[in-house]
Specification:
CATH architecture of the largest domain: 3-Layer(aba) Sandwich
Number of helices: 11
CATH class of the largest domain: Alpha Beta
Protein name: Uroporphyrinogen-III synthase
Helix content: 25-40%
GO molecular function: uroporphyrinogen-III synthase activity
Largest sheet: 5 strands, mixed
InterPro entries: 4pyrrol_syn_uPrphyn_synt_sf, 4pyrrol_synth_uPrphyn_synth, UROS/Hem4
CATH topology of the largest domain: Rossmann fold
Radius of gyration: 24 Å
Oligomer: single chain
Number of domains: 3
Order of helices and strands: EEEHEHEEHEHEHHEHEHEHEHH
């Protein structure tokens, strides 16, 4: 018996089992330098082949995020053996009319709000940038309660010297979970009835309607705009539509909508992983099959759930078929 290894010591390393009689029939692209191993050492390959035995080994995973935001996800995917590729789908721009944000910042300083609710790290960045522009700092938040939709948003507040008092349970870190954990307005207890909600221009009504139902008045302010990014290179678009990516990890509903808009729908062989219910709902709305939704809506849980799902498919022999090779004319 023998083995043939191609692209050795790289993320593209692949090893194929064969014999002297069958080596010519290996159905694979044997590109680059090859290492052929013959003899009894071949029998120990499964015992020591941890490199190729990782759940996502050799999988090309599409990460529809800007490179500066995709770092933690790409690093975690790599530990499972994946080959991540980032594709920006949105860019952040300031609001077209800054007057609304100016009034909101003035309201924070004047004590107009009982709560400020942050639904993303981008919202934290937008408010803080405005503070710095006006020469303000964290002291201006004195007396205001702060809520964050999730741990990452809470960390962004802490990094700026502010302590969030409300973060939903780790399994409910979305708009619905924030409403469920938010206190009702009680006139005899709460001196101010107004909540500031600085967020993107494309936010849903779930949070606003939920807070109003709890008795609060809500200032829903556009803190930043999400603008669809330019389409990726033709080669990447072709890979997306032809099954060149084995999986795609969506981290929000907007990344789903924008990826489909700028690059087209992922091929049906591609495993679709969505970070939470809203991203999953948008993927289904776009006609995609959702394969993975983690119990906890954060990046580590999303990647772990994808790896676990793929390991399960491999164990039961249900992995997606390989991408079809295109004929060269």
């Amino acid at each position: 018996s023998l083995t043939v290894t191609t692209n050795g010591t790289t993320r593209l390393q692949r090893t194929f089992d064969a014999t002297l009689e069958t080596i010519g029939k290996i159905d694979a692209d044997l590109e680059g330098n090859l290492v052929v191993t013959i003899g009894t050492a071949v029998d120990d390959r499964s015992k020591y082949s941890w490199w190729e035995n990782r759940p996502l080994y050799g999988w090309r995973v599409l990460v529809p995020r800007a490179k500066e935001q995709a770092g933690p996800m790409n690093a975690r995917l790599s530990t499972y053996g994946a080959i991540p590729q980032s594709v920006p789908t949105i860019s952040m721009e300031p609001p077209r009319n800054p007057a609304q944000m100016d009034r909101a910042i003035k309201g924070i300083v004047e004590g107009r709000y009982q709560w400020i609710v942050f639904t993303s790290t981008n919202a934290v960045d937008a408010v803080w940038d405005k503070f710095e522009e006006l020469g303000l700092d964290a002291r201006a938040f004195a007396g205001v309660h702060l809520a964050a939709v999730g741990q990452k948003t809470g960390d962004a507040l802490r990094d700026r010297g502010m302590l969030p008092e409300l973060i939903p349970h780790r399994t409910k870190q979305n708009a619905h979970g924030l409403v469920e954990s938010f206190p009702e307005y009680v006139e005899d207890i709460d001196p101010v009835s107004r909540v500031l909600l600085p967020r993107a221009d494309l936010g849903t009504d779930v949070l606003v309607d939920g807070l109003i139902d709890l008795g609060w008045e809500v200032d829903d302010v556009v803190a930043y705009r999400t603008v669809r990014a330019a389409p990726p290179p033709l080669e990447v678009r072709d890979m997306i539509k032809s099954g060149g990516f084995d999986a795609v990890c969506f981290t929000s509903a907007s990344t789903v909508k924008n990826l489909v808009g700028i690059a087209g729908k992922p091929h049906q062989r591609t495993i679709i992983a969505a970070i939470g219910p809203m991203a999953a709902a948008e993927a289904r709305e776009q006609g995609l099959r959702v394969d993975v939704v983690p119990e906890v809506a954060d990046v580590p849980s999303l990647v772990d759930a994808l790896a676990e799902h793929v390991a399960g498919l491999r164990a039961t022999g249900q992995l997606p078929p390989p991408r079809k090779k295109r004929r060269v004319r």
